[in-house]
Structure formats: C-alpha cells, structure tokens
Known about the structure:
The chain is mainly β and about 375 residues long. It has helices spanning about 1-15, 20-25, and strands spanning about 25-35, 45-50, 55-60, 70-75, 80-85, 90-95, 100-105, 115-120, 125-130, 135-140, 150-155, 160-165, 170-175, 180-185, 190-195, 205-210, 215, 230-235, 240-245, 260, 265-270, 275-280, 290-295, 305, 310-315, 320, 325-330, 350-355, 355-360.
Amino acid sequence: MRLRKLLALLAILGGCCPLAAAEETVKRQVYVTSRDGAGGHGEKGIYVYDIDNDHKLVRFIALPKLEGTRGACACAATDKMWISHGNEKVLCLDLKTDKIVWEVQYAKEEGGADRIGVTPDGRKLYVPSGWWSGDNHVKVVDAETGELLKKIKVAPNGGLHNLIVTHDGQRVVVGSTREDMLSVIDTKTDEVMQRVGPIIGVIQPLTINGAGTTAYINTHLYREGHGPGFEIGDIASGKILHVVGRPDLAERTSRCHGIGLTPDESEVWVVDQGYKELHIFDNTVSPPKFKQVIPMAAKTHGWICFSRDGRYAWCDTGEVFDAAAKKLVAQWTDQPDGKGDPVMSSKFFEVHFRGDDAVFVGQQMGVGYVGAAEGSSP
Length: 378
C-alpha cells in the first residue's frame, strides 16, 4: 500500500511515472453530480463515465438525500470528494468505497454553501456563502471532519459564488455576483490579499491559468456592446488587462455563463447559453481573438471544462466534444448503453484511478495547467 501511495504522489507531482504505468492501467473517469441546483437532468447521485470507452456510464452512486448540487471537488491525496448541496450543506464521500464520511449543515448565520474548493493536500475546504446569500464570508472548513475553522470576510455585499483554489494551494480566487471586484485569499493567513477589477457589471463564472497569475472572467459585457466574451485580470497587480468580446454581436443582451481554458491554455471557450453556442477564442495572441462557434444542443445553465489531456471538452448539456476537431463525439446519458436520457449538470470533475487509488483529480472549473506549480495536481 505504501508503494502504491508513493506512486500516486509521484503522479500528482508531475505526470506520468513509467513504473506506475507498468504496475496497473489508469482508469480515467468523469464524476457528474446530480441533480444540479442550477437546473439539469438526472437522478439524485453521481453518474460515473468512462472517458476511454466513449464516455459510457459505468456506475451510478445513488445519494437519495442529495439536494440541488452547488459545487463538487476532490483530492487524490486523501481519496475523498466533497459536494455542496441544498444551499447550506456539504458532504464528504470516500472515493474508494462510495460511502458518505460526513455531512454538515451550516447554520443560517454561518451563510450557505456554493461552489466549494479544496487545497491539494486535502486538509482545508473553502466554502463561499452563495450567490443567493447576503453573508459576506468564505468559510474555511476542516476537510476531514467538516468542522468550521474560520470565516473570512470577503465581499461587502455577499453573493459569493464561484471559487477556485490554485494548483499550488497558495491562493483562493472567489467572485461575487454582487460585486465588480474579484477577491484573492492567501491560504497561509486565510485573509484577503488582493482585489482584481473593476469589471463590467458583476462577476459570473471564471477560470485561471495554471500558474495562478491570470483570471479569465465572464462579466456583463453586453451592457457596453461587447457581445459574448470575457475579461482578463492580472492577479498580481489587480488590474484588468483586456476586455475580449464579439462586437459583431453587440445586439445580444444576454450574459455569458461558462468559461474554460484548454489545459495548454491555447484557447478560451465561452458559453453563450442563451443562444446555445460555444464561442472559441485564440489565446496564443494578446489580446485573444475570436476563432469559431460550436452549436450546443440545449439551453442550459452554462458550463465548460476539459479533460486533463485536452482531448475532450465537457459541457453542462452533457455533450462531449473533440476539442481539436470541434466535433460532438459523445453524450452523457443515464443508461450504460448510451441510449437513455441526457444527463445535464455543471458540477463535475475528472478522476484517474490506478487500482482503487485516485492518482489525479481535475477541477470543476476549466482551469489551465501551463506552469502549474510543483506540488499541485498534474
């Protein structure tokens, strides 16, 4: 067991280990939580799909008491995952046994539980109070027990919604749907260390590059005629570097909800859910330039992530696209033969197993991986 855990750690620190690869084949899976608190299709629980077998359903983990899911994250070092649900609850699940380890419901005065994040060592959870909440704190929670450790005062008006822990675990980036400034928390002190902005309108979904130095933010660009797009913020200086949009679609008055970097950070994908479109931008130039549009099957909440190898793009519609060819290749469904009803959710992540040990977990956000610090997830 010690050898297997050592091999898992080597995989977490830097990618492929020939010895580990020779020992056992890696299973790559996607864990999709359901039902999505922001709307979706599926039964209460977790749908697990095999990435290397046409994204076929391999099992369903029934969680009958699971309420609308708000966020999901996992840690390879501890073989655990966490789901925020029902607006004020968080549960911990063992990835090896599929059993619930603990569940906590936080009191109203402690705020809610929105898109949670975990440090790479699996010790601390960061829990935003929720886009629906006037509470202006991010809760710091013991990931092993669910115990509340601290409340960090962040946004003056509450609305704390989307949150990302950087690959190196040193910072937490969190946005509020009631503010025009992104907040950055130092995980050593658990205090706000930087504010990034102001942006146009308020903050919607966001992502970051692998080095944790740059934020890509869905904002209300339509208010100033920019069309579908995003803003880019520099985390060190706190300044907005670029506003990137589609001025040719300035007549559109809907917000974009969903943004992801390809793992190699060469492209930015943006979900214009109102028009059922994915807008793709070339991120190899500065500022990024529009490349093309991919149609989506349904008008949903709006979300986009990528497989760690960059081969697949996953949308909350349950559609799976070949990221290079920009073609639909699979659909998540509720049946192993792929012929069931579509499963739609914006709370999902990738897991790699060697035997029954998790050796890699992805994030629920479409984060980049270039320059990811040593000691982070690969």
